[in-house]
Amino acid sequence: MRRSSKLRLSAGSFAVGVALAASPAFAQEADVTTEEEEAEDRGIVVTGSRLNLNPNLEGAAPVLSVSQQQLQSQGTVRVEDLVNQLPQVFAGQAGEVSNGASGTATLNLRGIGSVRTLVLIDGRRLPYGSSSISSANLDLIPTQLIERVDVLTGGASAVYGSDAVGGVANFILRRDFEGVELDFQGNFQQTGNGNDFFNNVTAAAQQPVPDGIIDGEEFVITGMIGTNTSDGRGNVTVYASYEQRNQVTQDNRSFSACTIGESSAATSFGGAGCVGSSNFRRFADFNDIDGNPDDVDDVFQELDGTIVPFVGGPAQTFNFGALNFFQRPSERFTLYGRAHYDITDNIEAFLDVSYTDVISDAQIAQTASFGAIYSINCDNPFISGTPGIDLATEVFGCTDADIANGTIQNNLFASHRNVEGGPRNSRLENSAFRIIGGARGDFADGIWAYELFGQYSETSDSSLSTNDFIVSNLQQAFLVTTDADGNAVCTDPSGGCVPYNIFQRGPNGESLVSQGALDFIQGVGLVIGETTQTVYGGNIQGDLGEYGFNSPWAEDGVALLVGFEVREDTLESIPDEISQVPGGGFTGVGGATLPVAGEVDVFELFAEIQIPIVQDMPFFEELTLSGQYRYSDYDTDGNGTSNSFSTDAYGVQLTWAPVEDITLRGQYQRAVRAPNVIELFTGQNTGLPNLNSTLNSNGDQIFDPCATPFPTASAAACANTGVTAAQFGNIPDVISGQTQSLTGGNPNLEPEVSDTYTFGAVFSPTFVPGLTISLDYFDISVDGFISAGIAAQTTLDQCLTTGNPTFCDLINRAPNGSLIAGTPGVGFTQTNLNIAELETSGFDLQVNYSTDIGSYGGLRFDYAGTYLEEFDFSSFAGDTPIECAGFLNNGCVSAVNPEYRHRMLVTWETPVESLETTFTWRHFSGTDNDPNVDSPEIDDDLPSINYIDWAVFYEITDSIRLRGGILNIFDETPPVSTSSGPPLGNGNTFPTIYDTARTFFGGVNFRF
After folding, report:
1. pLDDT tier at 767 (50, 70, 90 boundaries)?
2. What is the reported pTM?
3. Which residues are paired to 574 by β-bridges?
4. First CA to last CA across the chain, in angstroms?
5. How far apart are CA 583 and CA 594, in angstroms?
6. Where are the beta strands (DSSP E) in 373-516?
7. Is the model's pLDDT at 953 over the cut of 80?
8. CA 911 to CA 483: how far, in whole Å?
9. Up-side HSE of residue 590: CA atoms within 13 Å toward CB?
10. Of 44, 668, 836, 937, which residue is the least packed, with the fewest Cβ within 10 Å?
């Protein structure tokens, strides 16, 4: 039985291609015909297998296809904006990430981590995204040059090698473009900011309430020119694009104008209030527990300079989220050239060359003099005689003798936000060069085909951080005396030190921090990096049926492929000297940025076989068995250490079509993921994990159960975590939920091992023309999951509950018992280990139906949904699994894990010639969280949400096509959570998942 390419794509590559179709059925069929014609000339690209001798056979692996027109119908100018909307894709690095941004865009299939998703262009892997993240950078993909995107979910290491655990995304580019194409598109966001609840919360805290706004403007210009050679044996295509995107800040959205938490204070509304950060004009001596009732150890500075007791609330905390970016401003420039030429009728040479440069800014709140780590001399002229409470004598504990002798008091808390210097900013630049060349052909009358190739990729990246405080200079500027003329000067004037006066304010409430002081204490941090990837390899495949190797019940013969591949990935990251200071050279970074250098080399042998068993017989229209195997031998080297290991990946698939209308398919895949350079060779450092919140008996939201005068854990439980009897009830809480951890690489890591099972069916009934239904079950498990030790929240919970040293030995409290970030050595130990386990399973359902409605045109209905049956993560073997499906922020790999997601499109090809329109319904089910919050508007149980999008296309002429549309037509407010921490959480929600406004887009395409 010979099947058409159209049927093969409908059944074997159906999934999300059906779900995302925004063009009418007629246009899609035309695309398929073109692909079939190309297949006859050069062989088709099959995602999920390198065998392409029998394109008529059904594939067992579910492969989901998205066309170029479908990309345009979503109004997207970036690949990640589209793929993050697919039901099988979870959020990764994107333009909506600011705190923790890598400057790249990543893809996270099945939610098990972007490092477990392999990204390919025309079947060839991309290099490390940058020196700070090994996941492939989607910015390297030329959007307008895409012919289609194939997404294979589940293990595929036997075919493609390491990293294909969650799946593979293969971006197939246009091959034989001829002519000139220019494309222009512009987008902007708009919101009325009419959410009364959140506006009232903001107003109650006396914070600015945002009005309606248009922002986030972006545009992209692309151009492409291609020509066939005069003899018709080759083609050259050149592509260029430029994109610019403007920022969106959190203060311009009702739900993110301030950081929201539960509150019943007078400055709250409806059980919610602006919680802010207490690192704001606050001074304390947390170590002063002498019991003197005259001491006020924790105070706040009013705008007029009066020092009063610190009681918290919006009036005494800093709205740190207002100026964070919801969308980073960026520029991207891309050049891509590709050529191929038939040297002979049996030999084709090919070459691809590309260059990409992306620049963006990541902005977060102003830095502060964080931490209870500062030394201040008692004769500092700024601290004596302050209005209200005297800082010198009543807060910092200076006696008259101390003042006279200039005694230095240590470990003081003197926190002031750098409102004078402005928000922290990281300018991120990432450029990449990639070249691929080789030859392919066939011999022995086309029985055998081969390919030989080599590729080299190089990325360069830099991160320039500004407006942060240099810890050592800040400390130097806190030690102040007077000179002979009575002027305040630094006790150590070296380096041009200028006193930092945050202890007093001017007569009109103005800040007395001078520009000279800012110039001295603010610094610049620079990290530069480079990665390279060198790959060469080849394969040969043959139709053994020509030699009699075929089943007596099948027309097609056995197909065999064997090949080899050699790959070297190198990475080097070089931070400047100040960034490497232990504990962090800057106050606002949370830890040192250490150099990383290393390489991973691998030699691989692989094979594939495809055995048609039965064809064109009763109850056996097709029965095909396929298998793959790959052996990989690894060597790693970095930081003066080396290691070696080997892996085996293999898979087997079975496809059975009992009748022409039904295809059943199933597979098993053993996949592997080798540790990358970053996981292996990163030096030990400090991180900033988040702890979950709970309510204490005083009605306060706290993050450390052992903190505040009203702990939620018992003294005995807290003792397990290192709290002494004297500390219990006197421990300051973790600020904004952010604690500290000790992280680092491990050169002795081993590969992760994964097992994938999929079973599915495709139903295309001939008695209902235009209907196709696809249902697939997936089950993916990962053992030896490389994890940064055990999650901080898990460690704390288990230690409190069990007292098990496995957990408790990983907790390190400060001398005052706190887990507050900023003090070296305080927090949780979380170095890399092959320690965790993961399992996820569920169902993918796709339904496609297209029909002619007579004089009214044509309709197409496309549905794609994923139901997450199970998603369990265990921090270590034997641990009680964390239930991730339907939950958020509870120690899982992905922050938000809806049990159910879908996209449904309705496309109408109108009776008006060349006019078509599409409505899209995007749905996310709700998620639960452990903390209980009374206010439904800020409940950590995220509600389900629905988005409606609209797009329209109109061809003015054969050469000019217009498009436009609106995403999130009804401007739905995203689900709000108090547990939306970085990197993917921001502004009380998760902007990489949920829309933060409605988006308008419009574009025009010219083809000549």
Report:
1. very high
2. 0.85
3. 528
4. 41
5. 11
6. 374-377, 408-415, 424-443, 448-469, 480-482, 488-490
7. yes
8. 87
9. 18
10. 44
